[in-house]
Amino acid sequence: MINLDGRVAIVTGGVQGIGLGVSLSLARAGANVVLAELVEERIPAAVAEIEEVGVQALGVQTDVTDASSVDQMVCATLERFGQIDILVNNAGLVIKKHISEQTEADYDAVLGTNLKGTFLCCMRVVEEMRKRNTGAIVNLASQAAFRYTIPHVPMLPRRQALSR
Ligand SMILES: NC(=O)c1ccc[n+]([C@@H]2O[C@H](COP(=O)([O-])OP(=O)(O)OC[C@H]3O[C@@H](n4cnc5c(N)ncnc54)[C@H](O)[C@@H]3O)[C@@H](O)[C@H]2O)c1
User: Fold this and answer.
1) What reaction gets catalysed by this protein (predicted)?
2) Is the Cβ atom of 140 under 6 angstroms away from ligand 1?
3) Cβ neighbourhood burial of 100 (10 Å; 0-12, 13-18, 19+)
C-alpha cells in the first residue's frame, strides 16, 4: 500500500460508486479526503464513512461544470488543509438514451460534466500544485468511448475500434 499520510486528495463525485471506492482507498493509505459533490444530501454519509478510517474528510457541495463553484471548493480545501496533493476527476454523467431521443441539453450536461468539469478542476488545481511544484491528477474515463451509440451493435474490441 502506498503511504499517503498527511496528503490531501480531492475526489469529485466521491460520495458513491467508484468515487467512494477511490476516496476510501485514498483514506486507507492515509490521505485526508475532500469530497466535491453536486448532490448535497449524499455528502454526510460519505464523510462519516471516510472518517471511520481515521483520516479527516471535508464535503463541499460543488458543481464541476461551474468555474466559480470549483474555485470555492478549492478555496475551502486550502482553508481546511492548506494544500492539495491529489485530484481525482471522477464526477461523470451518462445519459442512456438512443441518440435520436437525446436533446441538446443532454449533450451539454454530459460534455459539461465529463469534459468541461475535468478541465475546470485541472485548471484550478494545477494553479495550486504549481506553487508547490508537486501533485498528481487522475482522470477517469470509460471504455464506452469506443462503443457505438446505436443499439444492437456489439462493442468492438478496443484494438479494432482504435483502428477505425
Ligand atoms: N460505473 C461504471 O461502470 C463506469 C465504467 C467506466 C467509467 N466510469 C466512470 O467512472 C466515474 C464514476 O462512475 P460511477 O458509476 O461511480 O458514477 P455515479 O453516477 O455512481 O457517481 C458519480 C457522482 O458524481 C456526481 N456528479 C455528477 N455531476 C456532478 C457535477 N457536475 N459536479 C460534482 N459532482 C457531480 C454525482 O452526483 C454522483 O454522486 C464516472 O466518470 C464514469 O464515467 C464508470
Assistant:
1) a (3R)-hydroxyacyl-[ACP] + NADP(+) = a 3-oxoacyl-[ACP] + NADPH + H(+)
2) yes
3) exposed
pLDDT at 150: 54
- Nearest residue to 91 via CA among 6, 4, 16, 149: 16
pTM for this model (two decimals): 0.92
pLDDT in tens, 52-109: 999 999 999 999 999 999 999 999 999 999 999 999 999 999 898 888 899 999 999 9
Q: Backbone dihedral region of 99: left (phi > 0), alpha (psi from -120 to 50 degrees) or beta?
A: alpha
Ligand 1 centroid to Cα of residue 162, in Å, is 24
Separation of alpha carbons 19 and 31, rounded Å? 15
- For 8-162, give the CATH class: alpha beta
